[in-house]
């Protein structure tokens, strides 16, 4: 069974620190990887997508992918209290146009002022 | 970015009634939409994949006769919860597939909270 694993947290970091969120996946053939942010009571919001090994940066967010280790991470620099949310890792094991994402259970991040 | 809307945002109904939820892609055409359900403090669970002009594909354990999906146009998919019961109370979220810089991406609607009394 294809799985996506995340530490449920909560992960607590002080304001201004770097928050590091990690995710592992079981299907070695997975091609597409996504990070979503979900505030309490709201639907997920896409933050980052990554498809190739290495780092991808977008503002304060950096996604890192290591397909050999089946590992994807999200770094949030200069964390703000408004970053407090649950972060969902999602993997498309089929790639291409299949689009059936498998979600992890999410890591709850708390940024303390 | 791509915008997906849902209607209604919340609904309360009596047990045994049917509820229809609409999912619309506002600024793009979506041949494929997805329906998820999320119970409190749990992760998203994919219920079905909705394809424009064809039958939906349901995940294992999801009753297709209870959760009717219609994807009649490139911008609209509907989910009808038939004969709703209290255990169907949940947060229902749709998503639509779009392409961002050539890569396939899913965008979520704001969700619909269903409470069955």
Description of the molecule:
Chain A has 113 residues and is mostly beta strands. Chain A contains no helices and 11 strands. Chain A has strands at 4-6, 11-14, 19-25, 32-38, 45-50, 54-58, 61-66, 71-76, 85-92, 102-103, 107-112. In chain A, strands 2, 4, 5, 9, 10 and 11 form a 6-stranded mixed beta sheet that branches. Chain A has a 5-stranded antiparallel beta sheet with strand order 1-3-8-7-6, with no helix packed on it. With 117 residues, chain B is mostly beta strands. Chain B is built from no helices and 11 strands. In chain B, strands 2, 4, 5, 6, 9, 10 and 11 form a 7-stranded mixed beta sheet that branches. Chain B is globular. The model of chain B has no long low-confidence stretch (mean pLDDT 92). At the A-B interface, strand 4, strand 5 and strand 9 of A face strand 9 and strand 10 of B.
Helices, strands, pairings?
The complex is a heterodimer of chains A (113) and B (117).
Chain A: E1 4-6, E2 11-14, E3 19-25, E4 32-38, E5 45-50, E6 54-58, E7 61-66, E8 71-76, E9 85-92, E10 102-103, E11 107-112
Parallel strand pairs in A: 2-11
Antiparallel strand pairs in A: 1-3, 3-8, 4-5, 4-9, 6-7, 7-8, 9-10, 9-11
Chain B: E1 4-7, E2 10-13, E3 19-25, E4 32-38, E5 45-51, E6 57-58, E7 67-73, E8 76-81, E9 90-100, E10 103-108, E11 112-116
Parallel strand pairs in B: 2-11
Antiparallel strand pairs in B: 1-3, 3-8, 4-5, 4-9, 5-6, 7-8, 9-10, 9-11
